[in-house]
Structures are given as C-alpha cells and as structure tokens.
Specification:
This protein has 142 residues and is an alpha/beta fold. It is built from 4 helices and 4 strands, in the order H-E-H-E-H-E-E-H. A 4-stranded parallel sheet has the order 3-2-1-4, covered by helices on one side. Helix 3 (63-75) links the parallel strand 2 (54-60) and strand 3 (82-86). The radius of gyration is 15 Å and the shape is globular.
C-alpha cells in the first residue's frame, strides 16, 4: 500500500482493541481496488493473533480490480477473513444481513481533480482512471 493507505490501516488497527474480543467485528472497505486495505488488516491480525472475530468485506464497482483483489487474497492467504463484493459504495450490504450492522468502514475514494489527471506520474497513470478521478474539485465522493 501507498503511505497514505498505510496510515488508514494503522488507524483501524489502533481502534480494534477497543472492541470486545467476544464480539464479531465487521469491517467494510469501500473503493477496495486491489484489496490492499482489507488484506493488510487481515495479515496484521493473523500475525498478532488477536481479535480473531474480525471479518472484512471489500467492495468495488470495477470487476477487473476485484479479480485482482481475489488473487491477492489467495496469495496472502487471507480468504478466511476477507471477502470481496461487487457493487457501488455500500450497496452490496443491502442484500447481506450487514445493513446497519458494520463496526468500521474504511474508504480511500478517488480524490484527484479531473483536470490534473494528465499531469500524474507514469506510475500513478497505470491505475484505472475510475480509481483516480475525484471529479472537478477532487471531492466528488466526499
């Protein structure tokens, strides 16, 4: 994950101990992309062997990136704790028994202004435009 994403993961890990170890904790990551956030959280939980009742859903509208996320999930052996769903924002929760029953929501939505997309580094330009374009002011999803 990029440094900004690492900060988001670290913040989640800081608050997890505040939950009862007896309660199942549900985390939902919207705009999950390649699954960096849910997989990183799951790997840390496995490594530290705490909060065993944590399950993480990653949601994305792009099927291609979800395929990548699922491959990463298998590669990192986190599929017992992470599941990826196709849909927009929190929409997939409507069909699961999770609506209004989520403990933590993470999101790293597109935030780059549309007119700045052409000026990005070549590395960032490799990302799908859908994952970068935050609209005219970069705040469309906020």
């Amino acid at each position: 994950p990029r440094p900004e994403t690492e900060i988001l993961v670290e913040e989640v890990l800081k608050i997890l101990p505040n939950f009862s170890s007896e309660k199942e904790i549900t985390i939902v990551d919207t705009f999950t992309g390649s699954g960096n956030i849910p997989i990183s959280i799951a790997k840390h939980i496995q490594k530290e062997n705490h909060n065993q009742n944590v399950f993480i859903y990653g949601i994305d509208v792009n099927l291609k990136t979800l395929h990548c996320a699922n491959e990463n999930n298998l590669l990192h052996k986190t599929q017992n704790r992470v599941r990826f769903l196709h849909g927009d924002l929190l929409e997939p929760l409507d069909v699961l028994p999770l609506k209004n029953n989520v403990d933590i929501i993470t999101a790293n939505p597109p935030y780059i202004k549309t007119h700045e997309l052409d000026n990005l580094s070549q590395e960032v330009k490799k990302e799908p435009k859908l994952a970068l374009d935050g609209g005219d002011d970069g705040l469309f999803f906020y």
